[in-house]
Amino acid sequence: MKKFNVLIVGGGSTWTPGLLKSLANRKTQFPINRLVMLDTNAERQSVIGEYAKVLFKEEYPELDFHYTTDKEEAYRDDLDFVFCQIRTGGYAMREQDEKIPLSLGLIGQETCGPGGFSYGMRSIKDMAEIVENVRAKTDKAWILNYTNPAAIVAIAIQKLFPEDKRILNICDQPENLLRSYGRLLGGMSPRDFEPKYYGLNHFGWFTHLYDKDGKDYLPELEQMILSGGFRPADYEQRDKSWLETYAMVEQMVRDFPGYLPNTYLQYYLYPDKVLKKLNPEFTRANEVMAGREKRVFEECQRVAEAGTSQDSNVVANDAHGEFIIIVAESIAYNQGQTFIVILENNGIIENLPNDAMVEVPAALTIHGPKPFAVGKIPTFHKGLIEGQNAYEQLTVEAYLENSYEKALQALTLNRTVVSAQQARQVLDALIEANGDLFPELKKAERELETVK
After folding, report:
1. How far is residue 429's CA from residue 240's CA, in Å, rounded to a whole number?
2. Which of 181, 264, 268, 391 does the annotation list as catalytic?
3. pTM for the whole thing?
4. Which of 60, 184, 350, 450 is surrounded by the fewest CB atoms within 10 Å?
5. Separation CA 209–CA 371 (nearest Å)
6. What strand order describes the sheet that includes 337-344?
7. Measured between alpha carbons, how far is 372 from 370 in angstroms, rounded to an integer?
């Protein structure tokens, strides 16, 4: 069985320990010859890297592992897979993405609304640079991208590298939802389902959840959620804000029955209700920094100092870590397993634009994803998706064209904003806060004739 050479870009992420543990757990299904972690933040990555050395010494001693900040060392011509999970601007800018909109009476969230716009404008440049660095060395490596906001990043990468068929944008939230449904049903695995799903990233719906015998569990799940609420599969380890997010699924199912929504739709369907719950002084970024980030780095440091990972609890039910690996396995071994991924529409959803980057089930093969046709979708979902897609497309165009006008149009279209006046206020505030991390957004110079 071939052993693969893998690069993780974003080695200092709090999600990396789960990914490393999953690589060790699946070493027989997805054997690795060389694993390299790359990050621009040496201090953060070193904590994770030293934890990894202990973990692999005990559980994967044959693995050639190291971590680096040197791009020349990381990008090589024998790479098979590149896993990307970068966060341009770090948690400091995530905090601004959330708090600036909240200060103006708007939703402050990492990937949705103005916060997602800001994060996207920062992410495009670095993600494009990663693709260029990989392709300067090899055309064969698969680039599997977790980088958020995945919808905006996916559109940008498709526009910048339209002929590159070995880039796949993915998100673990549909996988998290499948795990949550499975736990609610008494222990079913995500692989037990044949899901029917459509939408955009963080903006979609499950329409059916078949098992291998053709039974659809969606009606049963709908009733279970309406009668008992909804929690994530790993709710014992989740922060308070995530529990509140999952709890909103009951409201969405009650108001719009027949489908199971992605949790992120709460921000678009109930912006006023969600806004009242958000604390402008302590956002999810603060919650993560005080909670998950603190726990992960303290535990990784403890493991490194102790020299053993045997009693470590740094990883618990990490869907994020396992998902990207089983996606890679399906591609590498031509398994054709079905996963929900982000692809250019091109007729998959008949009544949506071809250039929309839709999130749909697809069989993943060595030749790439083979999506399953969706057909036409209902007017309500179509209208919501078209508006969100227009926002995402305009955001990318604003970046590529350095256009202030298109940035303003994008934010005005977003359902968490709507008001053009508030869109301009939040745009100007985000431009100032991001500084050089944003492209220079220029206002078009026009001479307007006075109507007499």
Report:
1. 29
2. 264
3. 0.95
4. 450
5. 17
6. 64-68, 32-38, 4-9, 81-84, 142-145, 167-169, 337-344, 357-365, 368-371
7. 7
Q: Which residue has the higher pLDDT, 316 or 128?
A: 128
Active site residue 264: yes
Whether 172 is a known active-site residue: answer yes
Percent of the chain beyond pLDDT 90?
93
Give tens-digit pLDDT for 104-144.
999 999 999 999 999 999 999 999 999 999 999 999 999 99
Average pLDDT, the chain: 96
- Report d(CA 347, CA 138) in Å as an integer: 31
User: Residue 197: its pLDDT value, please?
Assistant: 98
6: tokens are 């893998």
pLDDT band with cut points at 50, 70 and 90 for residue 451: very low
Residue at 430: amino acid letter: L
pLDDT of residue 252: 98
Residue pair 362/339 in contact by the 8 Å Cβ criterion: yes
Establish whether 284 is an annotated binding residue.
yes
Tell whether residue 202 is among the known ligand binding residues: yes
Dihedral (Cα; 144, 149, 154, 157), 10-degree rounding:
-90
* Contacts of 111 by beta carbon, 8 Å cutoff, 6+ apart: 119, 148, 149, 150, 151, 202, 264
Joined together, the tokens standing for residue 144 give: 């599997």
Is 94 annotated to bind a ligand? Reply is yes
Nearest to 149 by CA among 11, 264, 12: 264
Known binding residue 208? Answer is: no
Q: Which of 172, 259, 267, 391 is catalytic?
A: 172
Contacts of 57 (CB under 8 A, 6+ apart): none
Please report, as a single letter, which amino acid is at residue 39.
D
For residue 449, what pLDDT is reported?
53
| CA separation for the pair 232, 238 (Å, rounded) | 8
CB 193 within 8 A of CB 178: yes
